């Protein structure tokens, strides 16, 4: 059994950027947010990820700016550490080891050198009781420091970071949990508690959901589950406290936030509306509606110029002073489930899965950003519980990514199932997919599997259904008819003894099709639709089928509901081997012979990576995660790893991604890969004064290439050659304000001329060749004249150039020209 010493599981892509409240920098140029095991730094103007601060070994649970240095940020994690970063350069400054899992973090300018964190209470190992403690950060020159000086502030608090807030320049802190609000005054070292009645009998839910304190006055705003907002005053004494009530939200208030000057209060909930309350004029409020999804967090920049809202669809929206949306940072959308499984787009290498309701999302794993959404259902989604609407349940790509097949279904209560099969053609102009064919009711029951044939000879799609049939759909050409383009039609309908097919799979070359009919595996020839053979196996319905790849293409593997993993040899049509395993998912790597099997055991999932031809697994890991892993995919790497160790070779070509039952996207990382990422981050040098954009990096790359060429070719011609971005026209376009620029027609000629290659260098290269040819001809013509003048030259005496230094070729050619020049006109003048 191979151990997993050099491989660890990480949140590499698709992390939740809405997990915690994002933070603006003091200049409002950057936005920092927790994303899995790292902290991402985004540009508020370009939406690009500037830095990815990696170093934590567990989930990052909070991000706050350092109140003593506005260029530094604190991050806390469940790994029990607080880390200090320089976010402008992406450098880890110091690590403070706390020793307990941290769930949230708070700081205040008044409490310098101290951070407040929420950790589990020592007496409660079940992590159901939490306490707010003050951590005094020791001053030390070491990069890793143990911070053991902890002092308890509040007990029995909520681990949610929005449930506590500092008030009036850090003089007190307010924390809410369930039906109780507690305020702790640091100067008095005393706390006051205020409780609300449950109100369940009247149908009112008074439970606290969030807290925000006024920055200048003694006022605490609390949100509640019934949609009300309460403003608490006079809470420095328990008996004379008062509160006023605001009510607009019809659902729970998820988040509250005061503006830096305290003139406005912002609130958000499931309505996808940002509500702008005027402080002390609560009857006046503004709204920014239709933000797309429920609001989970609100943040305001220190200067109050930008607002930021986090949404339940893993999105961050940047808003300019509650007027308009200026930027949207979209993460991987994680809905209620992944019905389409995880698919890799052959063109963009993007991960494709369910996104917004009725959509497919294309997500770049290498850049950790969403590329675009594809509307499959093409109907307006109504956000109402209990309403039956179409959902995308299946999706598949062909080998080259030219075609996309989707299945959408809707089952109404008391009515038949509605199923639509749609085929989409890739449009190179729009760089997206366009609907080509819609098949209404392709089967009489639910579709269980759908795959394209990898054969290059034909474009074929096969679907299996619970109606007892599998169908083959062929792409036909309409060029011989009046219709334009191509269309899809059903070419073959197959079945086996009225059994219901549950899964299917094509061989790597497309020459075989395996269809699992309950407990029987049938193998078909797609060329003639002949049933070639049936394969026997131990009892149990076939759950999944996979053909081997490359050198293991002769094997067919299948899993059954009776906890059996079977391997058949297609050459002998016999069972090669079988093992008792409760395999919940079987996935094959398209670039190697490796296969991954996720097994369910004792409430957790185990992973085994193996080759069908070898009895010993290449890699195994017990208790990978809790619950079943039902979705996984091998994604090809942009750059192949060069690991020679046996335990990590299976990750050289592809990277295995999988989704847990909690909708977390995880993958595996090796030490070689982490070293390469660290080296690439060290080589990246960014100008702090310029927001990094793709255009800026492109210009910087060209400048580096220009400098390299000047170092390699230090000749005058290379020094004269300039790249287009150094021309006057480019500088005018980039550095001159648009309103004072001349018309585009005037600048067009200058711009085009700056892109053309100068012909002077080409002429200078051709001139020496022409001169050499002319000189050779002149030498041949003047051989006779030179012989006749030999006596004359001898009469002038010995040559004076014998002792002169050697002439260059250019000087010799010039001398030959002078010798062959006709001087007869000079003799005629002398005779006169």
TrEMBL record:
Keywords: Nucleus, Repeat, Ribosome biogenesis, rRNA processing, Transcription, WD repeat. Residues 342-663 form the WD repeat-containing protein 75 second beta-propeller domain. GO terms for molecular function: RNA binding. Residues 761-808 are annotated as: Disordered. GO terms for biological process: positive regulation of rRNA processing; positive regulation of transcription by RNA polymerase I; rRNA processing. The keyword Oxidoreductase does not apply. This is WD repeat-containing protein 75 second beta-propeller domain-containing protein. SMART domains: WD40 (SM00320). Pfam families: Beta-prop_WDR75_1st (PF23869), Beta-prop_WDR75_2nd (PF23769). It is found in: Nucleus, Nucleolus. Residues 767-785 have a biased composition (Acidic residues). WD repeats lie at residues 53-95, 246-287, 440-473. SUPFAM superfamilies: WD40 repeat-like (SSF50978). Its main location: nucleus. InterPro entries: Beta-prop_WDR75_2nd, WD40/YVTN_repeat-like_dom_sf, WD40_repeat_CS, WD40_repeat_dom_sf, WD40_rpt, WDR75. GO terms for cellular component: small-subunit processome.
């Amino acid at each position: 059994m191979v151990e997993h010493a050099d491989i660890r599981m990480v949140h590499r892509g698709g992390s939740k950027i809405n997990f915690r409240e994002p933070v603006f920098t003091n200049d409002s140029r950057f936005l920092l947010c927790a994303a899995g095991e790292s902290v991402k730094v985004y540009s508020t103007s370009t939406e690009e990820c500037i830095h990815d601060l990696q170093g934590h070994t567990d989930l990052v649970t909070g991000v706050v700016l350092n109140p003593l240095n506005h260029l530094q940020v604190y991050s806390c994690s469940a790994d029990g550490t607080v880390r200090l970063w320089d976010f402008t350069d992406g450098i880890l400054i110091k690590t403070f080891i706390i020793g307990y899992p941290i769930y949230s973090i708070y700081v205040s300018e008044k409490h310098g050198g101290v951070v407040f964190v929420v950790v589990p209470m020592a007496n409660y190992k079940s992590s159901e009781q939490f306490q707010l403690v003050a951590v005094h950060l020791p001053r030390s020159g070491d990069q890793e420091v143990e911070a053991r000086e902890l002092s308890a502030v509040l007990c029995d608090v909520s681990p949610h970071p929005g449930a506590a807030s500092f008030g009036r320049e850090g003089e007190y802190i307010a924390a809410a949990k369930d039906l109780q609000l507690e305020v702790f005054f640091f100067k008095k070292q005393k706390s006051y508690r205020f409780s609300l009645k449950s109100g369940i009998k009247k149908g009112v839910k008074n439970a606290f959901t969030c807290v925000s304190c006024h920055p200048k006055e003694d006022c605490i705003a609390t949100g509640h589950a019934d949609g009300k907002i309460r403003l608490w005053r006079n809470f420095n004494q328990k008996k004379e406290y008062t509160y006023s009530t605001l009510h607009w939200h019809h659902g729970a208030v998820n988040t509250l936030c005061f503006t830096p000057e305290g003139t406005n209060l912002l609130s958000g909930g499931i309505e996808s509306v940002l509500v702008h309350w005027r402080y002390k004029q609560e009857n006046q409020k503004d709204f920014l509606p239709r933000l797309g999804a429920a609001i989970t967090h609100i943040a305001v920049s220190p200067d109050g110029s930008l607002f930021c809202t986090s949404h339940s669809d893993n999105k961050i929206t940047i808003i300019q002073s509650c007027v308009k949306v200026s930027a949207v940072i979209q993460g991987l959308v994680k809905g209620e489930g992944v019905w389409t499984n995880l698919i890799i787009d052959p063109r963009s290498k993007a991960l494709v899965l369910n996104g917004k309701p009725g959509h497919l999302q294309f997500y770049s794993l290498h850049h950790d950003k969403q590329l675009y959404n594809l509307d499959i259902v093409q109907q307006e989604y109504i956000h109402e519980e209990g309403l039956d609407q179409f959902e995308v349940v299946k999706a598949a790509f062909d080998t080259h990514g030219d075609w996309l097949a989707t299945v959408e279904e809707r089952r109404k209560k008391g009515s038949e199932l509605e199923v639509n099969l749609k085929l989409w053609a890739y449009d190179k102009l729009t760089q997206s997919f366009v609907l080509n064919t819609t098949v209404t009711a392709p089967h009489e029951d639910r579709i269980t599997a759908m795959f394209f044939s990898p054969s290059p000879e034909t474009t074929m799609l096969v679907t299996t259904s619970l109606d007892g049939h599998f169908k083959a759909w062929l792409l036909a050409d309409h060029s011989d008819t009046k219709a334009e383009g191509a269309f899809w039609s059903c070419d073959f309908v197959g079945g086996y003894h009225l059994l219901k097919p549950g899964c299917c799979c094509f061989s790597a070359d497309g020459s075989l099709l395996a269809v699992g009919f309950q407990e029987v595996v049938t193998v078909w020839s797609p060329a003639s639709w002949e049933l070639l053979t049936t394969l026997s196996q131990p009892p149990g319905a076939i759950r999944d089928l996979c053909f081997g790849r490359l050198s293991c293409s002769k094997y067919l593997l299948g899993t059954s509901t009776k906890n059996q993993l079977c391997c058949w040899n297609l050459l002998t049509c016999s069972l090669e081997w079988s093992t008792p395993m409760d395999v919940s998912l079987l996935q094959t790597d398209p670039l190697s012979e490796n296969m991954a099997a996720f097994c369910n055991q004792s409430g957790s999932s185990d992973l085994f990576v193996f080759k069908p031809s070898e009895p010993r697994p290449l890699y195994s890991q017990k208790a990978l995660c809790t619950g079943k892993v039902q979705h996984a995919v091998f994604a090809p790497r942009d750059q192949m790893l060069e690991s020679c160790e046996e335990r990590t070779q299976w990750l050289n070509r592809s990277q295995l991604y999988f989704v847990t039952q909690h909708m977390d996207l995880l993958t595996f990382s090796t030490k070689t890969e982490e070293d390469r990422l660290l080296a690439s981050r060290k080589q990246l040098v960014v100008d702090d004064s310029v927001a990094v954009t793709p255009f800026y990096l492109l210009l910087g790359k060209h400048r580096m290439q220009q400098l390299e060429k000047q170092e390699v070719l230090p000749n005058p011609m290379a020094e004269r050659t300039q790249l287009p971005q150094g021309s006057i026209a480019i500088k005018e376009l980039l550095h001159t304000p648009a309103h004072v620029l001349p018309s585009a027609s005037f600048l067009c000629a200058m711009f085009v001329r700056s892109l053309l290659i100068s012909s002077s260098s080409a002429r200078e290269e051709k001139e020496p060749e022409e001169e050499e040819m002319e000189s050779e001809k002149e030498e041949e013509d003047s051989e006779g004249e030179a012989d006749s003048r030999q006596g004359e030259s001898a009469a002038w005496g010995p040559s004076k150039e014998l002792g002169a230094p050697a002439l260059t070729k250019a000087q010799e050619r010039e001398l030959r020209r002078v010798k062959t020049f006709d001087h007869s006109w000079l003799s005629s003048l002398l005779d006169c």
